[in-house]
Amino acid sequence: MVETLTFILISIPTMILLGLRHALDVDHITAIDNLVRLHNSTRKSQLIGAGFSLGHMISVLAEMILIIYFIGSITRVDQLSFWGGVIGAIALGVIGAINIYSMKKWGKTGSAILASKILARIGVMKPFSSALIAGMVFGLGFDTATQISAITLSAVASATLGVQVALVLAGFFAAGMVPLDTLDS
User: Fold this and answer.
1) Report for 83-87, 110-114, 135-139: range of highest mean pLDDT
2) C-beta separation of 17 from 146 below 8 A
C-alpha cells in the first residue's frame, strides 16, 4: 500500500509537469499562433489553445488506451518511440501526397480545398472546432519525449495499479497542458 501511495504521489506532479512542458513544445506554440492568425480575431480566438489542447489530448488518450490494451506486445520504450515515429511519418507522407496531387490537379493544396469547400459549409472552420481537429492530428504521432514519457508512465501504472489509475494520470497530464495552451491563444 505504501508503494502504491508513493507511486501515485510522485506520478501526479510528474504528469502535471510533463503536461506543462509538452504545452511549451514548438509544435503547440506554432500551431496555436497560426490558428489565431488564421481566424484573425482576438475575441473569437480566445479558446483556440483550449481546443487545440483538447483535441491533442483526445488523440493522446486514444493512443494510451491502445498501448495499455496492447501492453503485452510492446515491451520496450524504444519500440513505442519507433512505431510512434512510423505513424507520424506515414500521416505526414499521406498529407504530402494529397497536397502534391491536388496542387497538380487544381492548383490548391488538399487542405485549402478541404477548408474552403467542405469544412466551411459544415461549420468546422470555426476557431474552436478547427483547433480541436488540428490538435487531434498533431496528437497522432508520438513525436516528443514528454508525450512518450507520459504514455510510458501511464502504461506502467496500468500494469501495476490498473487502467483507471493510468487514465487519471492522463487527466493530470492534460491538467498541465491545457492552461498553457489556452494562455497561448
Assistant:
1) 135-139
2) no
What digits encode the pLDDT tens for the residues 44-78?
677 888 888 888 888 877 877 776 666 555 556 56
Direct distance between the N- and C-terminal alpha carbons of the chain, in angstroms, rounded to an integer: 42
Dihedral (CA of 145, 150, 155, 156) sign: positive
C-alpha cell at 28: 503547440
Instruction: State the cell numbers at 143.
Output: 513525436
Q: What is the pTM of this model?
A: 0.65
* Contact present, 139 and 55 (Cβ < 8 Å): yes
**How far, CA to CA in Å, does 177 sit from each of 20, 167, 185?**
5, 15, 13
Per residue in 4-26, pLDDT tens? 777 778 888 888 888 888 888 88
Q: Are 106 and 116 in contact (CB under 8 A)?
A: no
Amino acid at 172: F
Reported as half-sphere exposure (CB side, CA atoms, 13 A), residue 20 has a value of 6
The C-alpha cell that represents 59 in the structure block: 488523440
